[in-house]
Write a structure and sequence with these properties.
The complex is a heterodimer. By secondary structure, chain A is an all-alpha fold. Chain A is 62% helix and 0% strand. Chain A has 2 domains: 121 residues, no CATH class; 82 residues, Arc Repressor Mutant, subunit A (Orthogonal Bundle), CATH 1.10.10. Chain A is built from 10 helices and no strands. The relative contact order of chain A is 0.08. The N terminus of chain A is likely disordered. By secondary structure, chain B is mostly helical. Chain B has one domain. In chain B, helix 2 packs across helix 5, helix 3 packs across helix 6 and helix 5 packs across helix 6. Chain B is globular. The chains are: A mainly alpha, B mainly alpha.
């Protein structure tokens, strides 16, 4: 770990590298995080050493995150190593570029690890399109019952519900909402992968699916397939 | 949970849901609260709701939590 530097706050603030109104300036920073900031906001060998150490940590976290997410059918062997290194390198760029935005609301390393986890997600999303399971434009409606756990032996009970859902998808959603809903819910395309494919971002795609879910539930409830909106919030 | 319940649960939306952008912005803070055993859901209900509904953000949260608690494989 980078050694703590008690002078970090004053030094960085005086140099204008940290927001004097921030929690950092207010002295809420733990010593380890202060050490990282001290090293990363300076110039010369100390900063280079900190960048090297941080990159090593990020590579380790990226590897661990890839292992935690389990086997990736699209990625094997050395490609996994490359992905971890790329994620770490891109995360390091993001971290150094946003250092002034660190508000000491968490340990520095927690804040930094967040970026490498995001990078792993984004890179896995890009790899998805190497071997897409469903051709773009196809619709795998026949897989929907299994996806939601409908019992094939009781098809007579849920056939009408899913037909009504499909009708609502066609009639209630905008073309863009329909495209996104079908890709994610029907074709099981990962949200991050779809965001990349459409040149969008996770937040925008999630919002589109959120609005689609609300519309579809209202339509199914209006037609008696589902009860009123559950008022219980957990 | 049967298919009807699963579909109904998936379609239900919660107006407290803050969306991905806000959840990602605060994920490091939320993860540290959870790691510390603090009432993260009470302090940030909109993030808790979002993480239950958004697979990618929930996955990122689990990854970050594993990273800071040393439970990463």
């Amino acid at each position: 770990m980078v050694p703590a530097d008690p002078a970090v706050d004053e030094t960085a603030v005086a140099a204008g590298r940290l927001d004097p109104g921030s929690a950092v300036a207010a002295g809420r920073l733990d010593p380890e995080s202060a050490g990282w900031l001290s090293a990363l906001t300076r110039t010369g060998p100390a900063r280079e050493a900190a960048l090297t150490r941080l990159h090593e940590l990020l590579v380790r976290i990226a590897h661990a995150e890839l292992r935690r997410r389990g086997p990736q059918p699209q990625i094997t062997g050395p490609e996994l190593d490359d992905l971890a290194y790329q994620a770490a390198a891109d995360a390091l760029l993001a971290i150094t570029g946003k250092l002034g935005q660190f508000r000491a609301e968490s340990r520095f390393t927690t804040w930094a690890y967040k970026f490498v986890v995001f990078e792993v997600s984004a890179k896995l999303g890009r790899h998805f399109w190497r071997r897409p399971m469903v051709p773009l434009g196809g619709e795998a409606w026949e897989r929907l019952p299994d996806r939601f756990g409908f019992d094939p032996a009781q098809e007579s009970e849920w056939r009408d519900l899913l037909a009504a859902l499909r009708r609502a998808v066609d009639e209630e959603l905008t073309p863009r909402q329909r495209e996104v809903f079908v890709a994610i819910v029907v074709n099981d395309v990962p949200l991050d992968a779809l965001a990349i494919q459409l040149g969008s971002n996770r937040n925008a795609i999630y919002k589109m699916v959120f609005d689609a879910r609300r519309k579809l539930r209202a339509a199914l409830a209006a037609n008696g397939y589902l009860g009123p909106e559950n008022s219980r919030r957990s | 949970m049967n298919g009807w319940q699963a579909l109904d649960r998936f379609l239900q939306t919660d107006p407290r849901d803050v969306g991905c952008e806000q959840a990602m912005e605060m994920l490091h803070v939320y993860a540290e609260l959870v790691a510390a055993g603090a009432p993260a859901e009470q302090r940030h209900p909109g993030i808790a709701v979002h993480l239950r509904a958004c697979g990618p953000c929930e996955e990122d949260f689990e990854g970050l939590l594993a990273a800071i608690t040393g439970e990463a494989p």
